[in-house]
Amino acid sequence: MKFLVDTNILSEPTKPRPNPQVEKWIEEYEADFYTSSLVMAELLNGLEKLPESERKRQLARQIEKLVENLGGRILSFNLRVAREWVRLQAELRSKGRMMPWEDSIIAATARHHRLTLATHNTIDFVHADVRLYDPFTYNDVTRPDQPREGTPS
Asked: How far is residue 144's CA from residue 15's CA, in Å, rounded to a whole number?
């Protein structure tokens, strides 16, 4: 299974007391995951908000190491993902649902590339028709009738 990893999973190891289950999951599955340029923007924006300190410099190094480790596995918001986002928005409107725009772009990226979205924030994605996985609980929270996995195109 291939994953699109959300901000709250990638940032977990940088916390003073990270969840050991999430750290173990990242270690086991790092070769099988991707992230999006929007997730990277969220990480960098969080870093930018911090005052100058050793902690900020340490986090900057960790983010740069993450970028290096992911190599070509940071997926961009492009025209194909934009079209998937428009389809997602139409589906949500037809159901009377809404999503925060950041989450909807992350969901559209996962849908377009047929990736399982690894997030702890599953509640915001349950109506996005994307397969979900929560490394905090090791639970696949998507119904089995919603298969969405593959290798990014």
From this structure: 33
Task: Just give the CATH number of 3-140.
Answer: 3.40.50.1010
Query: What would the pLDDT profile of 103-119 be if each residue is shown by its tens digit?
Result: 999 999 999 999 999 99
Query: What's this model's pTM, rounded to 2 decimal places?
Result: 0.86
- C-beta atoms surrounding 2 within 10 Å: 18
51: exposed, middle or buried (Cβ count in 10 Å: 0-12, 13-18, 19+): exposed
Instruction: For residues 20-37, give the mean pLDDT.
Output: 93
- Report d(CA 10, CA 8) in Å as an integer: 6
Separation of alpha carbons 98 and 93, rounded Å: 7
> What residue ranges do the domains of the chain occupy?
3-140
Nearest CA-CA partner of 13 in 34, 43, 38, 35:
43
For residue 8, the model assigns a pLDDT of 96
